[in-house]
Amino acid sequence: MQSFTLPGVPAGLEWRLEPVEWAAGNDGGLTIRAGARTDLFIDPKDGVRQDAAPAALFVPPDRSFMLWARVTVEFASTYDAGVLHLRLADDRWAKLCFEYSPQGEPMVVSVVNRGVSDDCNSVVVPGKTAWLRVSQGEKATAFHYSLDGTRWSFVRSFALGSLDGLRAGFSSQSPTGNGCRSEFTEIHYRAGFPRDIRSGE
């Protein structure tokens, strides 16, 4: 599939895995419909690998950058999610998710994979919309979420190691369900890294 562009993204995006359906809207947004039983996860218990979630990725032009978007998910099944994704290799990646919990609550979830997946549930966010932001520095990575796209709350920080070949972008998943539609709007990219990751500023 040919690459495509979005106004808020500084480089062309390419599908690593194609979704069931997708659309780049006139508003600069991106909609991704993942198919049934689509996930990205390497289970630390037994090493079982799931790698079927569609992802549109681009190569950031800056070593330090922030990527954020308003994420709206049509939740139906457990673990349905809209995702901001950072990827270096099949076993080295990270994702920040707006995900449907087993308790039937939308929540912010992060997964960092360095060989196997380190999975962390963060906070419940009422409704079907949240803002997600991934920030990549020279060494460290930081995840934040927001309720309004202006005030950011800290989720976690970590390091992925060498950043050669890093790609960033958007994904949707439906690990237990029949599919999930995720919409990414008000997409922004900016060079640089937060001054204070704890406050999000």
Topology:
Layout: E1 14-17, E2 21-24, E3 30-34, E4 40-42, E5 49-51, E6 55-58, E7 65-73, E8 81-89, E9 92-100, E10 106-114, E11 116-124, E12 129-136, E13 140-146, E14 152-159, E15 167-173, E16 180-191
Antiparallel strand pairs: 1-6, 2-3, 3-16, 4-5, 6-15, 7-12, 7-16, 8-9, 8-15, 9-10, 10-11, 12-13, 13-14
Describe this structure in words.
With 201 residues, this protein is mainly β. It has a single domain (14-191), classed as Sandwich (Jelly Rolls), CATH 2.60.120. Helix content is 0%, strand content 55%. The protein is built from no helices and 16 strands. The chain has strands at residues 14-17, 21-24, 30-34, 40-42, 49-51, 55-58, 65-73, 81-89, 92-100, 106-114, 116-124, 129-136, 140-146, 152-159, 167-173, 180-191. The strands form three sheets. It has a seven-stranded antiparallel beta sheet with strand order 1-6-15-8-9-10-11, with no helix packed on it. A seven-stranded antiparallel beta sheet has the order 2-3-16-7-12-13-14, with no helix packed on it. A two-stranded antiparallel sheet has the order 4-5. It is globular, with a radius of gyration of 15 Å.
